[in-house]
Amino acid sequence: MGYFQPGATVLRREVLHGAPWVVTPSRVVVDEPDLLVVFLVPGTRFGYPPHPWPHEKQLAGNATWRGHGKLQMHRPDDAYSVDLYWEGPSRRFHGWYLNLQDPYRRTPLGFDTLDHELDYWAPADGPWVERDREDFERQVVEGKYSAELAERVRRQGKEIEAMLTAGTTWWDPAWASWEPDPDWPVPTLPDGWEDYPQP
């Protein structure tokens, strides 16, 4: 399967219990053998296919992405992405968000993954913190994640904690100054996205 060109629209699908759970059209920034970077453009509309486990954003009535957008960096086989956030009228860099998720799997229209709820936040001006541990453990009990997956997520969390504590992060800090192409329109879900083949 080939690589996507910068500026192309790809579908980021989260797949839960064998079925798409949420679909997010995103812009490609970099797609190379060792790095996939996509941008979630402000105003992008989420797609929520019918699913027996309702998505929390859907339940909250969250239909579109608000704010400055976020940049998501992925390395092959990593069970997390590194997401960059900006804030305020001047678009000041806010920090790095390590989002634990399935390693991405390429598809003809983009890539599949699944958010694992547990995250780590490394702000631009302070120490890192763990996020959403209680929600993650609750969802394990409720059956969203299997016991086997939960153990892998916990191990991945420990590895991230060690990396952040040692300051041995792999990404280039220069990404904090990245800016989206102002001519990029908000990407949209293509016709028939609900019927896109099952994973």
From TrEMBL:
Record's keyword terms, sorted: Hydrolase
Superkingdom of the source species: Bacteria
Stretches of the chain forming a coiled coil according to its record: none
Pfam families (alphabetical): DUF402 (PF04167)
MF annotations from Gene Ontology: hydrolase activity
InterPro entries xref list: DUF402 (IPR007295), FomD-like_sf (IPR035930), Ntdp-like (IPR050212)
KW Hydrolase (keyword) present: yes
Segments forming domain DUF402: 55-167
Name of the protein in question: DUF402 domain-containing protein
Source organism: Umezawaea endophytica
Classification lineage: Bacteria, Bacillati, Actinomycetota, Actinomycetes, Pseudonocardiales
